[in-house]
Design a protein that fits this description.
The complex is a heterodimer of chains A (196) and B (1092). Chain A is an all-alpha fold and 196 residues long. Chain A contains six helices and no strands. Classes of the chains: A mainly alpha (196), B mainly beta (1092). Chain A: One of its GO terms (cellular component) is axon.
Chain lengths: 196, 1092
């Protein structure tokens, strides 16, 4: 245990977690891209349709991304993936309600991505714990329940959620790369240090 | 007039007006009240109105009326020209007095109003409420019928008009009927719009007509009620959306979908699925599309997208599906008397899923119990469970089916005790400690206490067919059931499985249980083996054979056979022979005994099989032929009455070098024929059968029989030789064939012969179709030779010999024989020519002798005549230039001319390029038109002689050359040329030959031995269109060289451009000189081939 607490061990552990996280995010990006194709086809949507920002869906774009601290990055990621977890669960429920057993392939793909999002959120929590920061409390409900949407709005919101999730997967890879980068000094990354 | 109804109506109206005037007793004077009209709305009171003709101002009006029922006149004053008075029973007299402002009456008028003059017009109905139901696009209208003011039972007609859009376009008008009940009833009417109510405002108004038959006056529709509005979303300040929202419609429907947007926005387009539809403008903020005959949508519905300006977008999802189909094959059964399982097929899919999917419910009419069915939409068969209710046996099920578009149902009445489908039997076990019986146990989940079960046990072993054994037993509650199976065969592996059903009312078998395997125990062999015996040729030993028992007879694994020999109950010999041997030999000497054989297995011994060794003598034993029959051999024999214990047919199988194995078959004494079959029988193999008769004293050989299961053609032909040959006959002899080669009963030989030389390439005699082929058929098998007669002398004959059986001909054996020469003919053929020659010689001698003087004068004169001498003719012909006498021709070497053209310095480069390029060949002019710019030099050359071999000139050397050599190769063949033609020929050759190459003039040293004479057309035809480089580089034996060699013919040149040697002399020019050079090279070898 003593060895595990040394800075070098923590660095190694963080590096390992970041590497695994990057792999997870890449896989998730690939699966979400496939899911987007299936989703657009099965929901009869135009793939080029532009969807306005959906309420409750966290945006991957960040204005001062390069200035963010490591902990801030992790917290942003965690918040986003917790939101996605709730949104995808809702999508899955709506899918079952609307289509029943008729489109099992889409349901399976959605469930698979939901599982990956949950796993990735758990992974982020581990990273935050490593930084002695601890993940923020999860109320479990995610964003407040949106008003009852029409089916068409549900379809568009689903499209928006998946597109943004794909963006987030890319951003997460970049965030984790940034975190995994060896710090110039003997201690952990400066970003991390700030976060602590 | 009859034909014009409008005219008739007008006439009726005019008569009515006139009547009204008469009845009003109008006395027309100015200022008088007139046009009195009375209208009742409720049949009790009526409102009477009138006009005053004068415009003069007047004060109050005195209004008095008297009815028949009440003779008292009632008067009152009124300022209006309208009074409400009771409706009279029959008529009323009205007196209206108009007063001046000061109160002085100035006009009085009396009217008599009869009942038929009164009009009945109900009051305009009042709409109580207009309620829109947006999801169903239904408007609900409510109003009161005001029935309390009318007598009971009147027919009321309500005309309702629906309008829509800002312009209030009429959509529909319907008439609603009701009956008045003398009470105020609130009536309600629903109308479903073909357009969502959100799309635009909808308006409703109503009026009524009460059909009171007792009322004799004029009846009319009431006024329209005030318009009631159901506002559309386009009237709301921020109302927007695409409507209807997430609606389900039936396939084939016409659907209107609208897009309501905010003020200032524009609809760019509306799409239904992938298609863009034309917009129908409803208002400034609403437009719609109309989808006709909608087809079934995808599982996720059809998207309707309204694209708005500024990248705005809104949409809805429309689900188009079918009403649920009537469930098919509804069937209910129970497997355990706890739950009734009903199954059905849904029929045509509705195309709607999830919460819009088809819902099923099972309603039992007798008990009134209802269950909702959870079904999987993806399964082809739907299942729904209903609990078994107490003592209820009969169930009347109603399967309700519904979806958002419609509903249907199916019903089924069942006695559940007759619909028992037990579950698969489980835990099947087989036990048994016997060779013939087993005990089976299995378990069935379910309560069958009230019925009997019928269970079927399938018994199978590897040998016989499957057997089914039915067992009926009382049912139990989740019980174990047992069954005993007897009459099984010992030492047999059995497979068992079980299924069950209701015994009394069979419905369905359960599925088979899993298979259980069991092998019964061994039992002693059922019988002794089938035995035979044979004495050795020496007669001192006896060989005993037995056949193995079949599995069903062995009852176990046979371990040994006990062989003993008894003579009058006294054992002489005893042997125990272990498996797998099926014969043994015992030494008996010349004794006879009774042989006994017992088969033994682990469970015991078989009964003994006995046979006597006594062989009764037989004489005159014949050998017959058997007849093949199918895959067996048919043999028959006469009946022998004294053969009391049957017959035995014995034969022997031989396979290769091994001694033949004895086999036999026993037949009862009444049998006289049999078909012997054996898996070991092979076609083309001769089998010898021996028929023994059985007597109490022993066995007697009756006859031998030979036969084949199938006769085949002989394997080969007999060997044959030529014994004797003469000039007209050949004697051939052949050998016997071994039986194994015959493969059947030999029927004869076939000898074919025809003239023919021994030639491997020639077809075989029998296949050649030779018309001279002769065939001799020898059916006498004892005959081993044949003399062929009537042959030609000194002629080669081919002889083919074949043997044949019923199976066909063998392959032939061939011989070639040459008959001997005919000596008489030869003598004649030699002597006659000799005699003729001798005779001619004698005649010639006599003639020469007699004419010897003339001959001498003619052929050998003492003084020869020069004119008759051929040898001296050249002196004459040489002056005429006769070309035929070449031997004495002495042509001097006449110089021919070669034109050497010196080109300008710029030209070689261009020509170099062109030379290198195949296309350049066509660029060079052939008519010599550019010769004006060239310096012509004539040099002498001798075509056939090349003093120096030209080395391959590199291309860059030729580039720098300033000279082009034109070689008139054709002219090399001209042996003579006339001096006067020289200039002309020179011109022609120069014009006709332009080799498209350059050679350094220094490399050319050519001598012309004789000037050539050439016809102009031949000269002009030469165009070597080849690359000099290729010529030089290729060796003659290279492929390219061979090709170029072939191409020489196309050049039309006798010279190789490379070697400048003669290649091909003109064929038509016999006199052209042969090339004198004899230098040998590969090029010569190929190019100067003789006769090429």
């Amino acid at each position: 245990m003593a060895a595990a607490d040394t800075p070098s061990a923590r660095t190694l552990r963080r590096h390992d977690l970041c590497s695994r996280g990057i792999r997870l995010a890449r896989k998730m990006r690939s699966d979400v891209a496939d899911l987007l194709d299936i989703y657009v086809e099965r929901q009869g949507l135009d793939a080029s349709v532009s969807v306005a920002a959906v309420e409750g869906v966290p945006a991957a774009a960040a204005e001062h991304w390069s200035e963010q601290t490591g902990t801030q990055r992790l917290l942003d990621n965690l918040a986003a993936y917790r939101a996605f977890r709730a949104l995808l669960a809702q999508m899955l429920e709506e899918q079952r309600e609307q289509l029943g057993d008729a489109d099992a392939a889409l349901g399976r793909a959605l469930a698979a991505v939901l599982l990956q999002v949950s796993a990735f959120a758990y992974h982020l929590e581990e990273l935050l714990e490593l930084e002695s920061r601890g993940p923020p409390g999860d109320d479990g409900d995610g964003p407040p329940a949106p008003p009852r949407l029409s089916l068409f709005e549900q379809k568009l919101r689903g499209l928006g959620v998946l597109r943004e999730l794909a963006q987030w997967a890319v951003r997460s890879v970049r965030d984790l790369r940034q975190l995994a980068r060896p710090s110039p000094g003997p201690s952990s990354a400066p970003g991390m240090a700030e976060g602590q | 007039m009859r034909k014009n109804p409008s005219l008739r109506c007008l006439l009726a109206l005019a008569i009515l007006c006139l009547t009204s005037l008469v009845h009003s007793q109008e006395i027309g004077s100015p200022g008088d009240p007139q046009n009195l009209k009375c209208v009742t709305h409720n049949l009790r009171k009526m409102v009477c109105t009138w006009d005053v003709s004068s415009r003069r101002r007047h004060g109050q009006t005195d209004f008095c009326y008297t009815t028949n029922a009440h003779p008292l006149t009632e008067c009152f004053k009124t300022k209006e020209k309208r009074v409400e008075i009771p409706v009279p029973e029959s008529s009323t007299t009205i007196k209206i007095t108009t007063n001046s402002i000061s109160g002085t009456p100035f006009a009085t008028r009396e009217f008599e109003i009869r009942k038929k003059d009164i009009s009945f017009i109900p009051l305009a109905p009042h709409i109580l409420s207009l309620t829109p139901d947006f999801p169903t696009s239904t408007l609900t209208l409510k109003w009161s019928d005001n029935g309390s003011i009318f007598p009971y039972g009147l027919d009321a007609f309500w005309q309702i008009e629906i309008l829509r859009k800002e312009t209030m376009e009429k959509v529909t008008q319907v008439t609603y009927y009701s009956k008045l009940t003398h009470e105020d009833i609130i009536l309600s009417w629903n109308w479903t719009s073909d357009m969502p109510l959100e799309c635009t405002s909808h308006y409703v108004k109503i009026r009524c007509f009460i059909n009171i038959t007792q009322f004799v006056g004029h009846k009319d529709w009431s006024d329209w009620s005030p318009v009631e509005v159901s506002p559309g979303k386009d009237t709301e300040p921020h109302g927007s959306g695409v409507f209807p929202q997430d609606t389900v419609v039936a396939v084939g429907s016409d659907v209107t979908i609208c897009c309501v947007h905010e003020e200032g926005q524009q609809i760019k387009r509306m799409t239904y699925g992938p298609e863009v539809y034309p917009l129908i403008r409803l208002s400034s903020r609403s437009s719609a599309i109309r989808v006709l005959n909608a087809s079934a949508s995808d599982t996720s519905g059809t998207n309707v997208v309204c694209s708005l300006s500024e990248d705005g977008m809104d949409g809805t999802v429309l689900f188009v599906g079918y009403t649920p189909d009537i469930p098919q094959n509804l069937s209910c059964e129970t497997s355990n008397f706890e739950l009734i399982k009903c199954t059905w097929k849904p029929g045509r899919p509705s195309g709607l899923y999830g919460k819009r999917g088809t819902k099923y419910s099972l309603f039992e009419r007798i008990s009134g119990k209802n269950v909702s069915c959870e079904v999987n939409e993806m399964n082809k068969e739907r299942v729904c469970g209903f609990p078994v209710l107490g003592d209820q046996k009969t169930y009347n099920f109603l399967l309700g089916v519904s979806n958002p578009i419609g509903q249907t149902e199916a019903s089924l009445l069942v006695d559940i005790s007759q619909r028992v489908h037990p579950k698969t039997p489980e835990k099947l076990t087989v036990s048994g400690n016997s060779s013939t019986s087993v005990h089976l146990r299995w378990f069935i989940n379910g309560s069958f206490t009230e019925i009997r079960l019928l269970c079927q046990i399938e018994i199978s072993n590897g040998h016989s067919e499957q057997k089914l054994h039915n067992v009926s037993m009382p049912g139990g509650k989740s019980s174990t059931y047992t069954a005993q199976l007897n009459t099984l065969h010992p030492y047999t592996k059995y497979w068992f499985r079980v299924r069950c059903s209701a015994a009394d009312h069979f419905w369905r078998w359960s599925d088979w249980s899993r298979i259980e395997e069991h092998t019964t125990l061994e039992a002693p062999p059922a019988r002794g083996p089938d035995i035979w015996r044979e004495r050795s040729p020496s007669g001192k030993s006896l060989k005993i054979f037995w056949k193995p028992l079949s599995l069903s007879e062995a009852n176990g694994k046979i371990v040994s056979h006990e062989v003993s020999c008894y003579l009058l109950e006294k054992p002489l010999e005893y042997k125990e022979v272990t498996e797998p041997s099926n014969s043994t030999e015992i030494k008996l000497g010349r004794n006879d005994c009774v042989v006994s054989v017992i088969a033994k297995n682990h469970a015991g011994s078989s009964p003994p099989s006995r046979i006597t060794t006594v062989e009764l003598p037989s004489d005159n034993v014949k050998t017959d032929r058997a007849v093949a029959m199918g895959n067996g051999i048919y043999i028959s024999w006469n009946s022998y009455p004294n053969m009391t214990c049957g017959y035995i047919v014995k034969w022997c199988h031989s396979s290769g070098s091994e001694p033949c194995s004895v086999d036999w078959q026993k037949f009862p004494s009444n049998t006289t024929d049999a078909v012997i079959k054996s898996a070991l029988f092979r076609p083309g193999v001769r089998y010898n059968f021996s028929l023994y008769g059985c007597k109490s004293s022993g066995y007697q050989l009756l006859k031998n029989i030979t036969g084949y299961t199938k006769e085949l053609p002989p394997k080969r032909a007999p060997n044959f030789t030529v014994e004797e040959t003469s000039s007209d006959s050949i004697l051939v002899k052949w050998e016997d064939m071994p039986i194994e080669d015959c493969q059947g009963f030999l029927e004869g030989y076939r000898l074919s012969f025809a003239k023919g030389e021994k030639d491997a390439l020639k077809p075989r005699l029998l296949e050649s179709g030779n018309p001279e082929l002769k065939v001799k058929n020898i059916t006498d098998l004892t005959k081993k030779s044949l003399k062929i007669l009537d042959l030609q002398g000194k002629t080669s004959y081919q002889l083919d010999l074949q043997a044949y059986t019923a199976g066909g001909l063998s392959p032939p054996n061939s011989l070639y024989v040459v008959t001997k020469e005919d000596s008489v003919g030869l003598i004649i053929a030699v002597l006659i020519p000799v005699a003729v020659v001798v005779l001619l010689g004698v005649v010639a001698s006599i003639f020469c002798y007699r004419k010897r003087e003339w001959i001498k004068e003619t052929f050998y004169p003492e003084i020869p005549n020069p004119e008759n001498s051929k040898a001296l003719q050249f002196q004459k012909n040489i002056c005429e230039g006769n070309k035929t006498l070449k031997t004495l021709e002495m042509n001097p070497c006449t110089p021919n001319s070669v034109e050497v053209v010196e080109t300008r310095s710029a030209a070689p480069k261009i020509e170099d390029t062109e030379m290198m390029s195949p296309a350049a060949d066509t660029v060079v002019p052939e008519d010599g038109s550019d010769s004006e710019t060239e310096n012509h030099v004539v040099v002498s050359y001798c075509p056939p002689i090349i003093e120096e071999e030209i080395s391959n000139p590199p291309m860059d050397e030729s580039v720098g050359s300033s000279q082009v050599v034109y070689i008139d190769i054709q002219s090399m063949y001209q042996p003579q040329i006339k001096p006067e033609e020289e200039s002309e020929i020179d011109l022609v050759t120069t014009a006709g030959y332009k080799p498209q190459m350059q050679l350094p003039i220094s490399a050319l040293k050519i001598e012309s031995c004789s000037p050539a004479e050439e016809e102009s057309d031949k000269t002009a035809g030469y165009r070597p269109q080849a690359n000099t480089n290729a010529w030089n580089m290729d060796t003659p034996d290279s492929p390219g060289s061979v090709e170029s060699n072939n191409e020489n013919a196309s050049f039309g040149s006798p010279c190789s451009i490379n070697s400048r040697q003669f290649l091909l002399p003109p064929k038509d020019d016999e006199d052209s000189p042969k090339p004198s050079n004899i230098g040998w090279s590969f090029t010569h070898f190929f190019q100067n081939k003789p006769n090429d």
